[in-house]
Design a protein that fits this description.
about 140 residues; about 15% helix; two-stranded antiparallel ribbon; alpha+beta
Length: about 140
């Protein structure tokens, strides 16, 4: 069974805008499923990741390799990106409000005018190579 089919079969509950998921990565709700599927297909097929202005709110994208991803203007509110590799990614104008980036690698990423409010940076490698341990 393919990666996408397995992920769609996994348990998913949406309760008052919050999610309970089994497995990782998985889309948070039906509203973001199309953008989530597009991103996962690109990862699976080794294609360029073009997800500018994608709505990936509350999506669990932990432990993915999103090197060089174009996520300019992406809406990632509340997303989980623990241990995600975002080297050289374009996160310009993205909304990272309440995102969990613990242990993520942003080396060389572009983050011009990125909204980053209440982000869990704990152990995150920042674009300049320094490690940010805030909100651990």
């Amino acid at each position: 069974m393919g990666f996408l089919k397995v992920r769609k079969v996994q348990a998913l509950a949406v309760v008052a805008g919050m999610t309970l998921t089994l497995g990782s990565p998985i889309a948070a709700n039906a509203f973001v499923e199309e953008h989530f599927d597009k991103l996962i297909r690109a990862v699976e097929n080794g294609e360029p990741i073009e997800c500018g202005k994608c709505n990936l709110s509350y999506a669990n994208l932990s432990e993915l390799d999103l090197t060089g991803a174009d996520m300019n203007g992406a809406y990632l509110y509340g997303a989980r990106l623990r241990g995600t590799i975002l080297r050289e990614a374009n996160l310009d104008n993205a909304d990272l409000t309440r995102v969990d980036l613990e242990g993520a690698d942003l080396t060389g990423a572009s983050m011009a005018e990125t909204r980053a409010v209440s982000v869990k940076w704990c152990g995150t490698t920042m674009p300049d190579g320094t490690v940010n341990d805030s909100r651990c």
